[in-house]
Structure formats: C-alpha cells, structure tokens
Request: fold
Amino acid sequence: MKVGKILFIVLDGLGDIQYGSLGGLTPLEYAKTPNMDLLATEGSCGLLDPLKPGLPPGSDSAHLSLFGYNYLTEYPGRGPFEAIGYGFKLKEGDIAFRTNFASVEPKNGTFIVTDRRAGRISGEDAEELGNVVSTIKEIDGVKITYYHTIEHRGFLILTGDGLSHEVTDTDPHDTNAPVLKCVPWDNAVNKAGAVKTANIINKFLKEVYRLLKDHPINKKRKNEGKFPANIVLPRGAGTKTNFEPFEKRWGLKPAVIAAGPLYKGVALELGFDLIDVPGITGMPNTNLRGKFSYALKNLDKYDFLFVHIKAVDYYSHKKDLDGKVSILEKIDKELPGIINAYRDGATVLITGDHTTPCKYGHHSGHPVPILIAGPNVRHDYVKKFGETFCANGALHRLRGNDLMPLLLSYVGLAQEYGLRSSPKERIFIPRDEWIPFKL
Amino acid sequence: MKVGKILFIVLDGLGDIQYGSLGGLTPLEYAKTPNMDLLATEGSCGLLDPLKPGLPPGSDSAHLSLFGYNYLTEYPGRGPFEAIGYGFKLKEGDIAFRTNFASVEPKNGTFIVTDRRAGRISGEDAEELGNVVSTIKEIDGVKITYYHTIEHRGFLILTGDGLSHEVTDTDPHDTNAPVLKCVPWDNAVNKAGAVKTANIINKFLKEVYRLLKDHPINKKRKNEGKFPANIVLPRGAGTKTNFEPFEKRWGLKPAVIAAGPLYKGVALELGFDLIDVPGITGMPNTNLRGKFSYALKNLDKYDFLFVHIKAVDYYSHKKDLDGKVSILEKIDKELPGIINAYRDGATVLITGDHTTPCKYGHHSGHPVPILIAGPNVRHDYVKKFGETFCANGALHRLRGNDLMPLLLSYVGLAQEYGLRSSPKERIFIPRDEWIPFKL
Reply:
C-alpha cells in the first residue's frame, strides 16, 4: 500500500494559451492524455498561481513556492540558485550573481547592448571566453570567482568582508539599451557594503571588456557575422540562505528526480535526497520511463517524490506548438505506473511551475492547470486535464503556497491549528529534537 | 419583514469526503435535505476554507475566523478558550492551559505516554482525581487553579507576576512518546517570564504524578485493565484577550444559540448575547426545533443570530457515516421556519466550521460547503447543498474572513472603501460614541 505517499510531478512550463491552429485549444487540451484525464476525472482539478495572479515566476521562485516557501521573504535571488545548481557551495558573506555573455558596442562613453545573449553563444567559443573571464581573480582585495556554465550563462561570486547583495543589475533586460551602472539600492541596509560591491562589479565590467574586446574568438565571430561575446553582465545578486529543511517544515521525507541543475539545486538546498536516474537530460530525449520507474521504486523509502520534467518548457521557449503537444502525449504514455501507485493509495499531484505560452516563448503570469488525485481527495466534474477544463474544478484557484498544507490534509497529517502552543500555523519537531521531561 | 437580519447557522464538522458506500457521495450529498437544497437553489453556493486552504481549524479559531477575526493575530490559544467556555474569567497576566488526563509510565528518568486521554477516563473516576489535582494551590509563589471539566479534559490557570504564555506543550500529541519538558519558545519576547512559567509547569507535572501515581482510583483502574490517569499534561498556553466587540467591528447586534461551552465561550468573548433554549445539549438528542424557533423569535431584537449545532461533528468524530447522514436529515426537517424567515427577507447562511471526515474521525483541511440565500444574493446553478455541487457555485472558494464583509454587502450595510479617513477597511462608530463638533 502506498497510503500517505505523495508523487509531486512538475511539468515545467506546462501552462499555455489557446490557438486557432489547435481548434481553439491549448497544447495540453489538444494532446491525447488518457492517463492524466483518468486522474483528473477521479480527483480534484483547479488553476494554480505559483506565486500570485499575474506574476510570472522564475523557475527557482516557482519551485520554492510550490514546496511551501515564501517567495517574498525566503527567496534569495537568482544568483545564489545559479551557483547552487552547479554545485557551488556559497559561504556566509559571499555575494552571488547570475551572468550573461552579451554583445555591446561603445557609444559616447557608454556601452549599448546589441544582443543580450551574444547570439546565444555556445560550445567552444563560450568555453574559451569563459576561461578568459575566469582569469580575473581579485578586485580591490575581494576574491572574484567566475564560472561559465552553459551557452551564454554563468555566475559570479564575490568573496570578502563587508559586501552586500543590495545592488542593482547591470543587464538592462533589453537591446539597443545601455549597460547599466551597478549602484546600491536606495533602501540598502548595508549602504557601505553595497557601495563597495557596486564598485567592484563596475570594475569587473571594465576588466572583462578589456580582456574580450579584441579576443581572436570575437574577431572570428564578427567575421562570421555572429555577435561577439565582449562583456559579461551580472544581475540577480543574492547571498547564501539557510532554508528550514523541507522535512522539518512538513514532516515528510523528500527526494528529487530531475536533470536540470536549477531544479536539483533548489531541492538539494531544501534537504531533498537526490535519486540518480540513468539517461535523464532535461531535454526532450530524456529517459521519461526511468524517471517514473525510479520514483515508484523509491516510494517505500520516501514520503514525497518530486519528479521534474523540463522538456515541456524546452518546446515552449522554442515556440514549438507541435513539439509541446507531442512531448505531453509522450509523458502521458509513461504514466501507467503512476496510475497503479494511485490505485494502491498514493496521492498524485500534476501541475506546472509556470505558464510558458508558445506564442510568447517566455514565462507568463497565466495560472497553470493542476490535478490532485488520492484516496482522500474529493472528485469533481472535470473529466480532462487542461487549463479551461480545470477552471471548473473543485480546487478553484490556488496559490503555490497552498499546496503543501492541502497535501498534508489529503494524507491525514495536517495539524489542527491551535492545538499546540505556538504562534505558527504548523510546527513539526523531529523526534530526535524532542526534549523529554525529566523526573 | 426580516430584511437586514442575518441567520448564521453553523453545522459543526459538516464537511466530509466521498464514500463508495454512499454511491460516491459525501454524507451531506447523500442525505435528503430538501430545505437546504431550496436555499442552495435560490441562493449562492461555494466552498469555504475557514482559515486557509489545507489548514485544519480548531473549533475556536474557526469560529473566530467566520466572525471576521484574524486567526493569526487575534487568536489567544486554546487554553484561554477552554477556561472561557466554562465561565472562568481570566485576568490580565493570567496564563491559561488546556489539559488532558493522560497515562504515563516512568522510563529511564522520563515519562512515556501510554494513552493521551487516560483511556478516555470519565465519570466519578475523573471527577475524584480532578479534585486531587485541584489541591495544588501554589508553586513558587504563583497561584495554581486547576479545573477538571469533562472526561479527560480540564484547564489550568497560573496567576502571578512576570509570567508568559510563550512556552511549549508538555503533551507530545502521540503515544509511546515521552512527556515533553515545558521550555520557553526560541523566539519568546518575555524570556524571563517564559523561563519562570516553564519551571512552574514542570514542577506541576512532578507534583501531579506524586499525588496520582498510587491513588486508589488508579490502582482500581489498573486492576480493571484500564489506563490510569496518573498525570495531567498542559498545552496551548495563552493569555486573556480583549477582542474588539463584534457589534463595534460589524455594526450588527449579535446573539448566540449554542450548547457547547467552547462555542458559547467564543461568542460571549466577542460580546454576543446568549439566548437560553431549554433542552439543548450539544449532542444528537438536542432540541433542534427549539434552537431554530428561539432564533426566529429573537430576529426582531438582534441583527445577527448565530445558531450552532454540534451533533454533526459528534457523529463525524465517532466515524459514524449513517449517524451523520441521519442527523443532517433531522436538522433539515426543522428548517421550515428558517425558510419562512428567508421568504420574509432574512439572509440565511449555512456552513460548517471545519471538515471532519468520518474516515479520519478528526478535523481536516478540506474546505466546507457554504450557502447564502437572501433578497440581495445572486442565485447560481447549484440545486443541491453538498461539497461537490457547491464547488460549482458562484461563491467559488472563500476564506472565513471573507464572510462578514460579504454579509454586510448582502444586507446593504457595507461601507465604500476610502470614503472615510481611516487606513482601515471598515470603521463603525456606534452613535453613542460620536463626538459632536462644538461651537
């Protein structure tokens, strides 16, 4: 029996809008998904705003919110998660930035961004230029650690005394726009630290440009009509955080099955165990069958199995409607084991971390569809999994932070409010932290 | 005419889940309730999270929330409500605890809980042992007041200077678990007071055990194979609160008809008048007809009539599906007077304070069904009162704190936001508190 076990399946970028070419349906509505439809029929459906209505989540803040962490007070910024995702251990006082390789042209003493991703530079070009930037080891006595990750992406860590994450982005998030000077936030608490940090970032920009502007790779790229990667733009400053572990917060022993570094990173930061599955890639060619079979194999050992599938978002960002429909059908075909676990008493949740309309090619603030099926979940009248169908479901419209309390109720582990002496909505003290009364 | 009058009917523990033995319906869906169905048909239905999605309310926090009080900032803890329910007037500085008689066995210098309710001790055994515990009158210069109420339940008041409610529970809320040492909260504001209070509670535990462990009643119980009541476990510490009166907050003159001490207690604390009805018991044998007829008789005198019926929850806690169905049908039969008042212009609300699935036998975080019918309430397409039917209703999914503002709008008494100079959503100043301008 799998009673009390939770399968938490996130199809990245699942939500979408309706298209005339799909007969006025969304990709999920159009796709043939008999297994998801069975769960939708026997369970409760609804719409979910991962953060709040209309606010497009990043994948990191979305997952934090789905796991019951407050995106406003507990989210450390994008920088730290980029570093965490690649296994970099931040230390107390470190400042982490997400970075992009970008293409700029000097103009009137400023830089104008001609491409925010340096033509989506990748492969050896990106690797070699990354190595050049990594030669910057110190500025003003502060240690500089730059890592190139994949394509135009990377992260930057400042290590030193008296720094602050309270600084602005250098990336204008637009083209034909100037690179922005890094300055302290108006409301910075550690003003001196923010001034120091901003100065270092501005010097880093100058130094990177000096190293890259005439680099042979960039000369070659220009000759080939490609955008040069002649600057690195830091943004999303943040610090090391100390999350309350998921198991302590919710009393459930969690594990993650994911290939994408960001998703693994978030889960590992929250204390999830990582289950390695051969052949998973975070791409459409991933080992879907393996993901689900490893999840099911581990249901005895864990209470909460988080399975993340990135491929849906891959097609959404590529604006590939047919690809999105076909990967959803492919995923559905691999769900019979999940259906069996549900029949055996497990509670199954399927949702997305955000909507990525194929029409946009980027995250939007539309809600995502959600279904929850389990032995103690009321069924409603929704017969098919899809955005519009779910709008008529019994879950109505929830927020990301509602999910964990709801799931605890569904598996009978929720605590009655007020029974315990605490101002908190929920307290869970692991047995090994109990203080026994002594005679 | 009853226009502007509100009948607020709470069926305790109303919500449930669906059962195969009821043809896939919940007890409320299965029950024949033509009168509730008439109100559902002519009014608006929906689902209600008394506190928030997934959080199982206690009966006290649930009612506070339904009456428009914030469960996080205005809830004083379970202890005070236990005392209030039994007519004990807390004074400023008093610390109140809810208590259980429990059964413990000493082991390696600690106590192990063998039963959290001392085998649901009751009758003379409980009364006599309660009297023994009541002989503890003082510890460390602080006055001790212990009251046994019914069965294993009781409350404990500490009266003295420099105490604090910021202390943990001694009850582990589990069996084969150690009695927990009472310690200050990590984030206690009055740390010294919390240390003092915790010490007194720990001494109280020792003293109770000394008095009870070899008491003849416990010896007799052991011989009979029953659990001894050899300790009293305090939990849910809280202080006297000063609620803004309901009438001041909402501008409605309120009265309560309830038998259960906790429900009367909450209403009395908020300034409700108590309407005595002969023969009401808080049990299935209660005088249902009397409750409704006294409510209707008092509609001229009051604006807001709160009628509480406990019997539904009684069967839910007993896991008695048939009993729950039959009490719902019995209640429905007594509603014709309420229907008449509705025809005469009154606004009628029927809901529960929480879901108690018969399958669980305890409170859960599933939402409860709600209906509101009145001359200014839109009707929707729901034809029958029940959890799944209500999920398609026009009220959608509300929270407890939404009800009072909605009801004010339905009776035409809501204030337009911003018309008055105040940061509050609503201000109501009774005429006798108006300060006239003087020349």
Summary: The mean pLDDT of chain B is 94. Residues 288 and 330 of chain B are 9 Å apart (CA to CA). The longest strand of chain B covers residues 95-107.
